Amino acid sequence: MFTLLQTASSSFGYILPNEAELQWSVLIVLYPYLTGLVAGAFILASLVRVFNAEAVKPTYRLALLTALAFLICAPLPLVSHLGHPERGYEIMMTPHTSSAMAMFGYVYLWYLLVVLLLEVWFDYRKDIVLMGQRSTGLMKVVYNALALGLKDISEKSLAFDERAGRFLTIIGIPSAVLLHGYVGFIFGSIKGNPWWSSVLMPVIFLLSAIVSGIAMVLLLYVVTSNWRKKQIDVRCVSAVGRYLMFALIFDLTLEMLDITHRIYEAGEWLEILKLLSSGHLIETMFIGQIFIGAVVPLVALAIMQAAKMSDREKVWAHSVCSVLVLLGVLLMRWNVVIGGQLFSKTLSGLTTYRLELVGAEGILAAIAILALPFVILWVLVKLLPPWDDDSKTRIQMAK
Amino acid sequence: MSEVKRKITREEFLWTAVKSTALVALGAAGYGVFNKASTGLVRKRDLLDRKKTGKQNFSMAIDIEKCIGCGLCVEACSKENNVPADHYRTWIERYVIKKDGTVLIESPQGGMHGFSDDVHEEDVERAFFVPKLCNQCEHSPCTQVCPVGATFNSEEGVVLVDYDYCIGCRYCIQACPYGSRFWNPVKKTADKCTLCYHRIMNGQLPACVEVCPTGARIFGDLSDPESPVSKFTKENQTMALKPHLQTGAKVAYKGLSKEVV
User: Fold this and answer.
1) CA-CA to A94 of 20 to 30 Å: which in A126, B194, B214, B227?
2) Which residues contact residue B23 at a Cβ distance below 8 angstroms, ignoring those fewer than 6 apart?
3) Domain containing residue B165
């Protein structure tokens, strides 16, 4: 199982004495993966609200809650990787203005407090008020607290909620771009590392984020619908699949442009990067990230646009594509973060990264961090049901 | 009327939210300024104009032809600065250019215990040693990326790390193109060569310079034209490592060969 994630064990050439250990582990691979899912899920949600993409409406609230659940977990791998997590708040208290990373705290808080929480609140306020009226005991207290004392659900008031939500979505799109674009900039701006140093890096990060977010929401929609034994809206699945295909086209094109540009430009780093990608990264990059994670789902999604398939087959095929895309984007993060540390800054040697099973930065810790957003999402879904059918019936019941 | 009243309440609520967010942000910024002002250490992000302040600009030059690869400097540095095992503030690389054109580069344990005679002499075209250390860059990529400003260019031209302030994100280690920074597993912060700041500020030489038996390391104040390092760089053709990266690397090498990475 680990062969895919484990790089070849032999090192090669000369690496500097201080390069024997890798600085950024699998946890730092997860960080851009998690924020990418946030940005992608939010952008899918914004299609409904700002661009009136009616067909994908059944996924709107689920996408918002998915973004929120993943955003809550996003700082976790970063903070637990710090040598002094207790000093982590300094990044917000005394941010160093020339550092791309110093933006983190502000972008994160802006996105969490101003964009996502407010948007979810405006979108759910009516439901919260109605559920507060309907429930008893502890839940009544919870819903009343969530309503923040604003229980007016007159038409005028709800129209204001709608306007505010729309406004927040419009702010949210550039915010999502910022949230994830800056993560790409953290890597792209390191001039001492030719694997990272690329002006395309933030754009590629962003596009792969959109791809992964759409795939995650699509998969969650199918899985939760099956779980709840509800009819899956195939028109919605196809529409989301179409957005996924377009995002994937842009993403793959830029990734190929990046590779082509590097090969054609043939800088002093070409030899070592060739060795890196043909040896240490062949499974995770060419086979995993590009072929299985992008080309196969892209071709499948394209075929599905024309092929005659039953609804059941369509849902299955879209789900499989989503899984492949999610795997591909995770591997892309791996290839950037780990790949960028597998060669010496002298450009004359390769080193290795051994992923441990246990330990603070091992596979199990990574799996736990990846699983946590789903637990949070489960709680959020229980608290704020995102389903169209449910909320309608609940509201009717309350009336 | 009640409708209007409710609407105002809502707007008021929103405004309060906006205002309190702004207040919290201002408070945080204020605390940051206060925090910085009250810290004893001056964190300079930019180099001061030394002509005005009369401060030194410490640096080092390396005479590659004089280095015999004995490793005393690496050992002295390690002891002087309590450098954890397998981590290096300075190290020596050995380059062996063989007659068939291949280049062998190595630095076993940073060259601390010297080098073994494992290459047949008749295969060797030429060989030399290159001591390396932090280049104390004028435009250091490591200080640029530090998210909290825990690493900085000191007034005396030395790039330092405030170990009580570093959060340990390791971004600076990634940004250094020379591999001069390392993770200190004891302090749990980034660490690097300080040119023995604690010694040079007391008029002593850095430990590596003091123990070098051949005078391959030349130390001094670049702002003083009579200092050994100023004289050496004036009298010899020297070059910095990776000049194309425009880091403003100050450590000057005499006799740098094209094979050096």
Assistant:
1) B194
2) none
3) 47-261
